[in-house]
Write a structure and sequence with these properties.
Layout: E1 8-13, E2 27-32, H1 46-57, E3 66-72, E4 75-84, E5 97-104, H2 113-124, E6 132-137, H3 141-150, E7 153-160, E8 172-175, H4 190-203, H5 217-231, E9 243-246, H6 254-260, E10 267-271, H7 274-277, H8 280-283, E11 288-291, E12 304-310, H9 319-332, E13 333-344, H10 359-365, E14 372-379, H11 384-393, H12 398-404, E15 411-418
Parallel strand pairs: 5-6, 9-10, 9-12, 10-11, 12-13
Antiparallel strand pairs: 1-6, 1-7, 2-3, 3-4, 4-5, 7-8, 13-15, 14-15
Helix pairs in contact: 2-3
Amino acid sequence: MRADSEPFVLYVREGPPEIGDDLPDEYSFTVWTPTMRHPVPATLNVNAAVWTSFHACGLFANSGYRVVYIRFKERIVHRSCVLPRYFRWPFMGENDLQVSSTWTDPEFRSKGLASSALAHILRTMTAARRRFWYVSRESNMASIRVCRRVGFQLFAYGTRGTAFGLRSLGQLKLLPEPPRHDVAEKPPLDMAADWYARYYSRVGADRNDLRVNRGALFQTIASERSLIRAFYHIPLKLSGLRVLDVGCGAGGAWYQLFRLGVKPQEIVGIDLQRQRLASVGDLYPQCTAIHADAAGMPFADASFDLVYESTMFATLPDDGIRARIAAEMLRVCTPGGFLLLVDWRTPKLWDKNYKALTRAEVRKLFAMERTTSLVGIYPGALVPPVGRLLSKYAGPLYFLIACFCPPLVGQVAYLLRKHSEPALNR
């Protein structure tokens, strides 16, 4: 996707921030406001000169134009610009302010300075009927995480128009619904939707309902156990782990991630089936769910520390689609990051819409040894006919059977680590 055609996401906040704006010792806030002696703030040039001229000519809707800095001792290490409404941002109100052109010194990143600056702006610049806006490219997950951490909520998607043939003068127009990415170039994964529709029409809607179907109890526990055991071998600080769930559906497994220590604000889900995403916002308002094609993800390279999928590959028998999704998962995973595949490894020869994710398939899809290394394989649920029967009638025997009859374990969790540097071709 070209950068100039990539959609924007608009976040809004009304009221105080959800986090504090306290800074560590030796850090401090300073605020620049335009004056005749200092019309251009530090660390900015052309843009600031234009904005200052807008301020002087009365093109801004209010007088809130300023720049908030964070200093370490005397050194400027972060900047956040505050802009009132002008002709490019027609959706803003008269009193509204937008936070724009944020920057953090590379040596001081991952310290929460951007969030503290944003919280400081919300706390100190409140006014009657004022909303604060935060606009970012959809793929800039680091920027989006900052505003969500402070309490901003997704308002709409947007695209930039043109004026006099120039995009730089065009207004940001709101889109009626989230954009679909590259749908003309990449085939949609309708086969997954068809697979689930046939699956539930055949087995019933309560197939995995823990309250109604007792056969699902130990199957669910065993699957969750495999995920938890995989997390034992992720030597990263989980509170700061950036997680992408590919084919997330309604985010059914996210509560396990929360229990393990992953922060909701750091979880992003992507799914092609819009109806499966409908309830995510109500269940997990701090998480981000995006309607897009996993074969062409709208994220920058190395955006996530952990890229995760659950029972997605088994429902996608097309080798081309599987390869494109795996390549995208590798692309958005950070060097040294992890890929967690919780999926079925046992074949169903009678089902042409199913393809097991065997170890050989994992090796091929994720370029094991060349691009990734296998950390471990952790057994999960038994093959359904056996597992559901034991779960319903002989629960105490479930894990005993799983231990002594490994071939009956149909679902496993593969944990891979992406190499920090690509292997040299020999």
